[in-house]
Amino acid sequence: MLLKKRIPLSYIFNKIKFELFHVLIIGLVVYYLTTRFREFIPVMPLGIPAFLGTAISVILSFKLNQSYDRWWEARKIWGSIVNDSRSFILQLQSFVTKGNEGDIRKIAYRHIAWCYSLSQSLRGHDGGDNLNEYLSVDDLGVLEKHQNKHLAILQLNSKHVTDLRENERLHIFGHVQINNTMVSFSNAMGMAERIKSTVFPVTYRYFLHLIIYLFLITLSISLRDIKSYFEIPLLLVISAAFFLLEKTASHLENPFSNLPTDTPMTAICNTIEINVKNLLSEEVNTAPAVSESFYIL
User: Fold this and answer.
1) Does the pLDDT at position 59 exceed 90?
2) pTM strictly above 0.85
3) 118-to-127, 133, 150, 284 alpha-carbon distances in Å
């Protein structure tokens, strides 16, 4: 997630450097052709590139809105996970009978592992990595048999809560409440996986780039009476604005892709871990996530 810090110009330039190179080539070629074959190329009214520019603005607006909706939904999902995680531990402490603090701690640590596992899986990594601190050897053995590691962790906690109920260490009302919270975790997991697996139509990007290049060609023809030392930089500046907006939309549409615009899942998991350990009255060795860069993951 981007922070309220200055974004380096090098980062911005690197996002569109190839597109600007293409624009430079197109501008030089069109300028040469309009100069060399001036009598064969008709005058291009400014209304034509203006019309194409309007079409680009409409398409960009639609793509930005849809991409932001995906990013904001992802952020709301992880916000609900934070809230439900706190409620989950409080419910365990309220409903499980005294003397079962060890079971509560085991379930709580499994839940921390579930959060980290889900975030790693959404980013395309192995959901079972680096969970030794939170899971027992038996639990890790169970995870090896599952492809969906975070779902397996959720199942382990569900079975553990059921065992507490069957052994009369958890009242049926408490079991229902805790089960509802775990269903919320499952729903959040499914919604995040849906965003990850649903690809934004790539045709929007291809068609948008095609129209931008067409717009630049017509604009260059329309400006053929302007000197190249002014026309080419003008084309670069105008195209940079369009391409930066398109890149912003492309990044927002993938909120789980290890980019600076991502949902800060690692930082959120870190917050959940601190909150859970505080509720368990345990010493917290994990420091709150901070970043010296202009973004945090």
Assistant:
1) no
2) yes
3) 6, 16, 6, 22
Q: 75 is in which domain, residue-wise?
A: 9-279
Token match 């095609």: residue?
Answer: 210
pLDDT average, residue stretch 95-107 = 92
Q: Quick one: tokens of 2?
A: 């981007």
Asked, for residue 89, whether it belongs to a domain, the answer is: yes
**DSSP-derived secondary structure for 177-238:** HHHHHHHHHHHHHHHHHHHHHSPPPHHHHHHHHHHHHHHHHHHHHHTTTS-HHHHHHHHHHH
What domain count does the chain have?
1
What is the pLDDT, as a whole number, of residue 288? 62
Burial class (CB in 10 A: 0-12, 13-18, 19+), 276: buried
Both tokens of 3, joined, read: 């922070």
> For residue 291, is it within any domain?
no
For 254, residues 6+ apart whose C-beta sits below 8 A from its C-beta are 70, 200
